[in-house]
Amino acid sequence: MYCTGGVRCERASAYLREKGPEFSRVFQLSGGIQRYLERFPDGGYFRGKNFLYDDRIAVGPEISEQVSPRPWCSSSSSPSPGVVGRCLMCRCSWDDYGARLRCRAPVS
């Protein structure tokens, strides 16, 4: 696992390394994920999205200026091969979590 940089990353990676040798492969990226993606525009080994604190919410390696097109997930979504996350409610492929996002699946 690679931490993206910043204060939370510093604390989280130190915490994980304290937990034992099974967490010995937790690293921090010098300059953070943004610098890594600038150096490797195709994404390099990076998988997933870089979560941001603006209306873009999250961007992939292409660093799109677009706002995420999906305001919520859909229970009819088929799995997306590049997405490693899943909605906690409906289990569809999902990687755009945020406070304004909600699952559309009926709650049972």
Automatic annotation (TrEMBL):
Residues 1-45 form the Rhodanese domain. InterPro entries: Rhodanese-like_dom (IPR001763), Rhodanese-like_dom_sf (IPR036873), TrhO (IPR020936). It comes from the Eukaryota. This is Rhodanese domain-containing protein. It comes from Volvox reticuliferus. The lineage of its organism: Eukaryota, Viridiplantae, Chlorophyta, core chlorophytes, Chlorophyceae.
